[in-house]
Structures are given as C-alpha cells and as structure tokens.
Design brief:
Radius of gyration: 21 Å
Keywords: Membrane, Transmembrane, Transmembrane helix
Helix content: 55-70%
Number of domains: 1
Structural class: mainly alpha
Protein name: O-antigen ligase domain-containing protein
Number of strands: 2
Largest sheet: 2 strands, antiparallel
Strand content: under 5%
Length: about 400
C-alpha cells in the first residue's frame, strides 16, 4: 500500500503541480506536429495506419472531454490526460536514424545529469529518470567489449536496486538484459524461434492475469470478497503482495456500472474508487474529485478508462503492428528481437508503464519508432551496429553521417 500511496503523491507533484513541465510537454508535442512531414515523411503510409487511427480517436475523446468537464479539477485532468494519450507521436520523432541518434546521444552525454539532480533526492536511483539507459541495455552486445560490460553492469544495477520494494524495475531491466542476450546470439536463432517468441511475449499478458492478478479473478468469480483480499495482502511479504487487483476491479466495474466500457469516460474523468479505496484512504489528506482516481500505474487500464475498448484496441494495435513490422519486414536480425521486446512491453503495460510524456517513456517509444521506421528496418546488421555505437561515440556518429544511411529514398 505504501508503494501505491507514493505513486499517488508523485502523480500530483509531477503533473498537477508542475505547470512549467506541462508547458514544455505541450511545446514539444506542437513542434512534433508542425514538423511531422520532415521527422517522419511516411507517417501517412499503411505502416502507421493504427498510430493515426488511435490519434484521431484521441482527438475525438479530447473534444468530448471539454464538453463533459464541469470543474477546474476535471479541466486540469483533461490536459494531463491529453498529453499522456499523445505519447505515440514519439513514433514520428524517433523515425529518422540521424534525428534519433542525435537526440539519444545528447541525453547520454549531457541530459542525464540534470535529471539526476532533479529527481535523485526525491526518488533515489530509479528508472524514472534513467529509463533511456534501457535502450543501451537491450543493445549492449553491439558495443565494444568494455563498453558492453559497463552497460550490462548498469542494467544489473537498475534491476537489483531496492529489489525487495521495487519489483517493476527488476523485471523490466531483466527482460532488457535478456533481449540483449538474444541479440548476442541472433546469428544462431532461427527466424521461426523469433516469430514464436513474439507470440509468447504477447501471451505473457495472460500469464500476468492468471498468476499475478489472481486476487481480481477471485473477487469477480465470487471466491473471495474485498476484505479477504486486503487481509490476505497484509499477511504476505512485499514480493508477494498483489496491489494491482483491487485497482483492476475498480477500473472494470466502474466502466460497466457507468456505461463507458466501449467509448471511454474521456481523459477528463477517472474511474470510481470503490474497492481500491483501502489503498489510499488511510491518508485523510488525499482527496479525489467525485471519488474518482484519474490515472494509475498501468498504462492499458488508463487507456480503457479514458478511451474505452475502442481506444484500448487501437492503442494495442500500435504495439502489434510495430512488432509485426520488426519481425516480418526487417533486413537485419537485430530489430526483429527488438520487436519481441515491444510485444513484451505491451503485456507489461497491464502491470505498469505509465503513459507519461516524460523521459520515463523515451526508451519504449524510441524502440517502437525503430520498429516502425523503414529507414531502420532496411539497415543491415552492420549498419545498425554503426548507428548503435554512435549513441556513445562521436567517431561512430561521424561514420554514420558519412554512410548517409538515413537519407535513402524509396
């Protein structure tokens, strides 16, 4: 419960209270839209169909949100929700190899330091501001041996830091390391195995609900009541606690009871706090508009609340199409493995991966953009390795520029 409480407080501090950050987010989104033809010339092609359909659905729900919002808090929630829902535009930003190379290499060289000072004393050493490191962790075998070992050690540090209290960073960093290992042995991995791996990564969502969120199933099936679930959680140690089940019970029952399961409640509103109130109401200083929680840690449950099953399907198809293009339409054996990682991140979205337009989402959407980008997918293994090494080496960035890999024309 303490973890959930911390996340609630962080949500209000980082989003509702920080209008400067919100202004920067709006400015970045505006710039991406203004230059989308330059950033991603192919954004209107068949490959990006589901990205565009999802964004159009977001526009519709955003307009409806302006109509249904009836107080200051809901208008504030609306703006936060819109920004969160527009995260997929990062597919356009990281489409071109040269642009993505410059953006990521600049962060690895300079930007991590301000984030360290801004967030370390509040959050500690976590993936909240070190998230772009996971891109390097996934690609660690592509670097020279010493650099690869340093990246791998950093990935292990991210995975094991506060492992007893923070399970999510451990799992996410561990899967990134396994992705890197798969890339290391890519030449002996049959294409069929990679394709099966993609399907398995999507199937992990079923495993999550059967074995991780078992409490939610027991409540819906009438095998246990909420009080029994709460008491059971209190008796478990930190690693075994199931704090997500009560949230899912509320998300689903709220959507059904208020009849917004198909179309969504708009990003101005949240889900009713009925069962999960026991996770938050122990602190009487926390209050919620209309007894609703606007968002939580599970990205796909937020999409379901704000945009209904229609939005959830379109958002999920972004992952599915990206992983399909990576696995079936690539000229190299590196990006197909990244496509499997993207498939797994969709399954992980039922557990965590909050949709924020922040540095915390850069690793995921940069990798999704790579899977969508025909520029990246046309590269050979050697060309992609040159690009990857350019993330940390000025010499390789110059080499990549000379190769002019990015500027090939169809």
């Amino acid at each position: 419960m303490a973890i959930c409480h911390a996340n609630v407080c962080m949500e209000e501090d980082m989003y509702f209270g920080n209008w400067l950050m919100f202004s920067v987010q709006i400015a970045v989104i505006t710039i991406i839209y203004m230059y989308r033809n330059v950033l991603c010339p192919k954004y209107l092609t068949e490959d990006y169909k589901y990205v565009n359909l999802y964004l159009r659905w977001t526009y519709i729900l955003s307009v409806i949100g302006f109509v249904v919002a009836d107080n200051y808090i809901e208008y504030r929630q609306l703006f936060v929700g819109i920004v969160s829902l527009l995260v997929p535009v990062l597919c356009w930003l990281f489409c071109r190899p040269t642009i993505s190379l410059n953006l990521l290499s600049t962060w690895y060289k300079y930007a991590w330091l301000p984030f360290l000072f801004l967030f370390y004393f509040k959050l500690g050493f976590t993936q909240f501001y070190m998230q772009p490191i996971l891109v390097l962790v996934c690609l660690f075998p592509l670097f020279p041996k010493k650099t690869a070992m340093m990246i791998l050690l950093l990935g292990v540090l991210l995975a094991t830091k506060d492992i007893e209290e923070e399970r999510a960073p451990f799992i996410k960093a561990t899967v990134a390391i396994l992705t890197g290992i798969a890339i290391y042995i890519r030449n002996v991995l049959p294409t069929k195995i990679i394709r099966i791996g993609r399907v398995f990564c999507f199937f992990c969502s079923v495993i999550v609900f059967v074995f991780v969120f078992g409490d939610a199933y027991d409540v819906f099936a009438g095998k246990a009541d909420v009080e029994e679930v709460v008491h059971s959680n209190k008796e478990r140690d930190v690693v075994e606690k199931d704090t997500r089940s009560l949230l899912y019970i509320d998300v689903v029952t709220s959507a059904i009871d208020n009849e917004y399961l198909i179309w969504g409640r708009t990003p101005a509103r949240g889900f009713d706090i009925t069962y999960s109130g026991v996770l938050f109401w122990f602190d009487k200083t926390i209050s919620y508009n209309k007894n609703e929680r606007h968002k939580n840690e599970m990205v796909l449950s937020n999409i379901l609340t704000w945009e209904g099953l229609v939005g959830l399907l379109l958002f999920s198809l972004i992952y599915m199409r990206g992983s399909y293009l990576a696995v079936y339409r690539s000229n190299n054996k590196i990006i197909p493995i990244l496509g499997c990682f993207i498939a797994w991140r969709w399954s992980w979205g039922w557990v965590e991966d909050v949709n924020n337009f922040l540095i915390t989402d850069v690793d995921l959407w940069a990798l999704i953009a790579i899977c969508y980008s025909s520029y990246f997918r046309r590269m050979s293994d050697g060309e992609f390795i040159v690009w990857a090494n350019g993330l940390l080496s000025k010499k390789h960035r110059q080499l990549f520029q000379r190769l002019k890999i990015e500027e090939r024309n169809d």
